[in-house]
Structure formats: C-alpha cells, structure tokens
Amino acid sequence: MDVDELYGLPLEEFVPARNALARELRGSGGREEAAGVATLRKPSVAAWAINQLVRTQRRAVAELFAAGDGLRDAHDQVMSGSGDGGSLRAAVERERTAVESLAGAARGLLTSDGHELSQTILDRVADTLHAAALDDDARAQVQNGRLERELRHVGLGLAASPGGASAPTPSAARRARRAPSTSPAEAQQRTEDRAAAEHTARERAEARAAARATEREARRRLERAQRAASAAGERRERAAQALDDARADLADAQSEVDEAQARLQEAERAVRDLAG
Description:
Elements: H1 3-6, H2 14-27, H3 31-38, H4 45-56, H5 58-80, H6 85-107, H7 119-134, H8 136-143, E1 152-155, E2 158-160, H9 170-177, H10 184-275
C-alpha cells in the first residue's frame, strides 16, 4: 500500500493502515519517509467524501472544473464590460448543476456505522466543491484525492479552509492591475452589469439557502412520517394479535357455555324423571 491508497480507504481504516505503512517503511530503512507518513492526519468526514468523489466520479469532477473555469471567464467578461448577464447566469447554472451532481453522489456514501452522511457534512462537501471549481489553490488541494480538511467557498475566486485566510485568484489580480480608461457611458454600463452580476449571485445564494431549508424540512417530515408509520404498524400488529386472542377466548367461552347448557338440560331431565 502507498500513501495515495490510504485516502481511498474507508475512513475508519485510515489510521490503522497509516500506522502499518509507517512501520513497514521504517522496517525497510525508510525512516524519514516513515516519519512523514506517521504525521498524516486522518481526513474529516467531508474531506473523506471529497476524496472518494475524486476517485470514483472522474468525469463529473472534470465537468465541475470546466464549469468553474467557464464561470470565472464569464464573470471576468462582465467585469471588463465585454460580457453580458445572460452568459453569466448560464455559467452560474452550469457550475451549480455540476456541484449538485457531485453532492448527490456524495449522498450515497455511508459512514463507518452504515449511516448516510448528515446534511451538515453534505453542505461542507458542496462548499468544498464550489471552492475547487472557482479557486486554483483549492482545486490543487482537491484534485489529488488527498484532502484532509474541507474548504470553505468565500466568493467568486476566493476560498479558505475553516479559519484560514483568503487569497485573490490570478484573474482578480489582473483586474486589480487594470487601469480604468472608459467613457462615462461605458462606466455606467459596467456599473449596471456589475450590479446585475451581484444581484444574480445574491439570488443564487438565497435560492440555495431556501432549497437547503426546504430539503431539511422535507427530510424531517419524512423521518417523522416514517416513525409514525412504524409506530402505527406496531399498533396494528398488537391490535391484530389482541383480536386473534379475543376471538380464541370467545370461542373457548362459547364452548364452555354450550357445555354448561348441555349439563343443565341433562340435570333438568333427571329432575323431571325423579319427580315422575
């Protein structure tokens, strides 16, 4: 086993396999390499999920990166005045679809105890995918399939790990160096395009938040309905068993009634015979 294979293992196997690999390297004389392996951190659940996606969903990951490049180009064109809002909205939709496709694949992954990934983990996966689509540094961390911690999507061209600092992308740096040389009309048009782009980004963020809230509420309702259905099924089974028991008791009681009536009739006949 090599280091790359460690990150493709089930999450609960990472530490034992890492320690075994370090011992193997140390025993074969690779002390420095063994020391490096021993310091590898176990990935977070979200980072582990990303690593599995990179290994198993190669075409979808390639589409994510292509969609991110397209979105950055469309954004740059709008900011420079050579693009339009329609192209930007189409690029935003393509990138969103790519992220949702991979996030849907992540939903099928199971934790070590056999449970689906929680919505919180899936949200972190989606944020990391956004970051990898739009930021070169984040993409470099994701695409080798050895991610240790999830990344946070800050904005177009910005990404950071939790608590980390953000850095502008090369395209943002190029825009910062670009000197303005436009007419008032062109400046006004760029301002309007920039406002449209910001409005689109806000709408996308709001729609995403609303969709997540709707999904969480639907999941909660489904879980409540499933629990209620399970409880009703148990009550039905108990009621059916009770009905069967009651029918059996009724049959037994009816048999006793019939037997008692027969004895009573026999006793009455005996009394009549003695009286005669």
